[in-house]
Amino acid sequence: MSKMAAANPAAPTVDYEHTFEAAAKEQSQSPLRFLLTLYKGNLHYLAISLVFFMIKHSPVFVLPIVTANMINIATNPSAHSTRELWINFIVLGISIIQNIPTQHYYISFMSRAVRHVEAGLRSALVRKLQQLSINYHRELQAGKLQSKVLRDAEAIEGLSKQLMLSFLPSIINVIVAFVLTARNSWTVSMFFLMTIPASVLIIYLFRRKIRSTNKDFRREIEQMSSRVSEMVEMIPVTRAHGLEKIEIDRMDSTLRKLQGKGYRLDITEAFFGSSNWVLFQLFQVCCLLFTIYLAYKGDIPVGDVVMYQGFFSMILSSITALLNVYPNIAKGFESIHSIREILRSPEIEDNTGKMKLPDVDGSFSFRDVKLVYPGNEHHVLDGVTLDVRAGECIAFVGESGAGKSTVLNLVTGFLTPTAGQVLVDGVDLSAVDLTTYRKRLSVVPQTTILFSGSIRDNITYGLRDITDEQVRHVVEMANLTEMIERLPDGLDTMVGEHGGKLSGGQRQRIAIARALIRDPRVIILDEATSALDNQSEHHVQKAMQQLIKGRTTFIVAHRLSTIRDADRIAVMKQGRIVEVGTFDELMASKGEFYNLKQLQL
Q1: Is 7 exposed, middle or buried (0-12, 13-18, 19+ CB in 10 A)?
Q2: Phi first, then psi: what are they for 51, rounded to 5°?
Q3: Are 568 and 582 in contact (CB under 8 A)?
Q4: 223-248: string of b/e by CB count within 10 Å (b at 16+)?
Q5: What positions does the domain ABC transmembrane type-1 occupy (predicted)?
Q6: Are residues 384 and 292 part of one domain?
Q7: Distances (CA, A) of 413 to 396, 397, 431, 517
Q8: Whether 176 and 80 share a structural domain
Q9: φ, ψ at 452 (rounded to 5°)
Q10: Strand 379-388 relative to strand 364-372: parallel, antiparallel, unpaired?
Q11: 170/224 same-domain check
Q12: Distance between CA atoms of residues 45 and 110, nearest Å
């Protein structure tokens, strides 16, 4: 239509990460002020949108005036000419036709701001989720996080639209109708003012109930989202054990609770809606009687009855719209509370001002390290002291729960000691920028994590400028060559969600290839070969022997035969290191390691 319409709809760039988090951390800030903070840098778009709304909405204001004029002309033709009829008709026609372009610009400018903020809000949430500590993610179920990122962000977008499409237009309607009425008759305008206390009273009576039912419904939605996520992940286990009926009953129970919360919310909103409708219909009848009485006495022309009735209908419909939209606004405010729970969380991994290691040699020192999880008096680690030389391969063994994987989480910086220190190259790990430090690490976790891309994408995840030769090399080292050659698309074969199209051993070897291609200084292997068959394990072990030369390697293994070639083995029991030595030394001492080995024979 015009250059304005064709312009790039992108709003000015705003630092959403800091703007949104700063706003969220202000405890005293109301949800409405938080919402306005989200629109920082976009408020001029909203202002322009409101200007176009006033123009496009003008027929609503013009129609009662023109109708009254025409009735007054028709009832007193001697005092008016037909030219006046045509003027009123033309004015009304123009005001109606202009609605097409102005409606376009009204929605266009509003959408620019709303869509930009919606994307920015989700971006801020994603950034925050990447910063939150591993413990926070362990505590909060993935389904609830998804609900906040998807449903609550959408609800806030809906809140913005409700405010722009219903709330502010209704306020403008009320103000304009009142001003136009007051311009003609203060007596009638005072009657109109009586509707305001009535609307405030209805909101006051229902406000607490609506807020409470919205909060209950939102929490039940999050719980359902979490349960659905768990159910989908558990489908293979459910099918394998014939537990479909039990899982269906479990989900039905959750859905019934959600149904009950939703029903109570609907009933509350129904009473709220019907109460304000009945009240304002009574006001409408009273307004008609009042203006007819004034016309009957001769205080106002007959045509003005229609005009005042039109203005009063506009006021009542606007106030009714305000009251009807209030439950949706309450839902949006509840979603703001929900999202602020994430943005306000202090449990982040803050690397601001910390030392960025230019390189990592790979020497580690554990000095009387103790670790206790919050709310638990049991020591996961209790006085662990150990020095690991750069380039050394050290394995941790012991019973389940002995603290082996916890040591690896300390090395990666996922956990921080309750007491004691973990040093890397002589520097306390708590003073190190973990983001840059971890780029020198490669981790193969106990649970293989793949995303729904190709095999190549999973191996080169996060890396650029990786050549085909490099990929082929690590594929061979991880014993993947034969498997990939059998696939129709080779390295470009899609693995499915969580690698569901591959076997456990294949997924594990891809994870090993992902670690190999990073050519790390420090390698962390948490049961890295646990899912491999004997032949594959043999090939991977040979590859590992080449990989770990000159690199510090931490290994956790239950199959003790896989760590025979480790430089040292640390035996853990109840959070302590009880033995350290080579495979042969520990076997010869006939201590804890010897007993563990005997159990596997």
Answers
A1: exposed
A2: -60, -45
A3: yes
A4: bbbbbbbebeeeeeebeeeeeeeebe
A5: 61-331
A6: no
A7: 18, 20, 11, 22
A8: yes
A9: -85, 65
A10: antiparallel
A11: yes
A12: 6
Token digits for 91? 């004015």
Q: Averaging pLDDT over each range in 36-45, 273-282, 422-431, which range is the top one?
A: 422-431
DSSP letter at 9 equals -
Do 422 and 510 sit in the same domain of this protein?
A: yes
Does residue 337 share a domain with residue 303? yes
Among 557, 580, 543, smallest CA distance to 384 is for 580
Residue 349 lies in a domain: no
In a domain, 143, yes or no: yes
- Looking at the structure, tell me whether residues 110 and 41 fall in a common domain: yes
Domain that holds residue 152: 15-343
Residues 149 and 180 in one domain: yes
CATH number of domain containing 85: 1.20.1560.10
What phi and psi, each to the nearest 5 degrees, are found at residue 581? 170, 180
Cβ count within 10 A of residue 136: 17
Q: Which of 293, 313, 343 delimits the end of a domain? A: 343
Q: Provide the domain count of the chain.
A: 2
**What DSSP state is assigned to residue 76?**
-
Please name the residues in contact with 167: beta carbons below 8 A apart, sequence gap of 6 or more.
322, 325, 329
Spatial distance between the Cα atoms of 15 and 435, rounded to a whole number of angstroms: 21
Distance in angstroms (rounded) separating the CA atoms of residues 167 and 214: 19
**Taking Cα atoms as reference points, which of 332, 334, 355, 339 lies closest to residue 128?**
339
d(CA 161, CA 107): 10
| Distance set, CA 24 to CA 16, 107, 123, 184, 346 (Å) | 11, 28, 15, 47, 11
Q: What is the mean pLDDT of the chain?
A: 78
Both structure tokens of 94: 């123009």
The model's confidence at residue 537, banded by pLDDT at 50, 70 and 90, is low
Specify if 9 maps to a domain.
Answer: no
Q: Which of 343, 374, 400 is the last residue of a domain?
A: 343
Single out the residue of 156, 216, 210 nearest to residue 336, CA to CA.
156
Does residue 392 lie in a domain region? yes
| Residue 382 structure tokens | 């209790």
Tokens 């389904």 appear where? 143
Taking the alpha carbons of 262, 263, 264, 267 in that order, is the dihedral positive or negative? positive
**Distance (Å, whole) CA 169 – CA 569:** 73
Residue-wise pLDDT for 408-436, tens only, equals 989 988 888 999 999 999 999 989 988 88
pLDDT at 520 over 60: yes
Instruction: Give the pLDDT score at 428.
Output: 92
Amino acid, res. 300: I
pLDDT value at 9 more than 70: no
- Strand pairing report for 568-573 and 576-581: antiparallel
φ/ψ (deg, to 5) at 414: -70, -30
Position of tokens 């409405």?
Answer: 32
Q: How far is CA 287 from the centre of its chain?
A: 49
CA atoms of 256 and 251, how far apart (whole Å): 9
Q: What is the mean predicted confidence (pLDDT) over 173-184?
A: 79
Residues 395, 437 within the same domain: yes
